Amino acid sequence: MADVGAEGGRSPLRVAVLASGEGTNLQALLDGVHGAEAEVVAVGADNPQAPALERARRAGIGTAVFPKDAYPDRTARDAAISAWLQEQRVQLVVLAGYMALLSADFTRTWSGRLINVHPSLLPAFPGIRAIQQALDYGVRVFGVTVHLVDAGVDTGQILAQCAVDLPSARHESEVHAVLQPLEHALLCDTVRRYARGQVRSDPEHPRRMLVD
Ligand code: GAR
Fold this sequence. Notes:
Layout: E1 13-19, H1 24-32, E2 38-45, H2 51-58, E3 62-65, H3 74-87, E4 92-95, H4 104-109, E5 114-118, H5 130-137, E6 141-148, E7 158-165, H6 172-195, E8 199-201, E9 209-211
Helix pairs in contact: 1-6
This protein binds glycinamide ribonucleotide.
């Protein structure tokens, strides 16, 4: 893969966020990165009720909704999302709790410019309900991952991870409460580094990313 990240960094990186729910990761980006290294220029959702949309509107950011039932299939919906992102000259797409699977066409189009935040230490516990999966497995160390998105489910190259010891955790909500601020910080930090052009492929290893 070619180097990823912004070049030169003269103008702020144009970022779009796709979300399905609360949008606390979007809010972290709005509070911590927007207007500095990056500009959140668009927020899209599959769910018209997503509170993330209201957070975007409050910040004066354009929103769009792409409901599943408005399109014949995933490919058609993702083509519409892609066209909308391209219209707005988006340079980086952040999946921040976007819970719909994306088509291979979409991930190919945005390859190297598409990142996701996931509440586990990948490759453990990909997919939905990652925290519950980890609790069910009986792990004692939890964590979060920010990664590039490829055609698989949470299989893209890892950009950043953060782990936390929670040996006696029992409930999803208590783990979530600990992980949430960690993922907010990790996502903001990764987007800042991407915007500064500090994210690139390791020529010596096909999966490893170098993040300065
Ligand atoms: C976050 O915990 C994020 O890691 C998770 O959804 C939550 C969204 O929260 N994403 C996934 O599980 C993706 N597989 P938010 O809407 O408050 O940002």
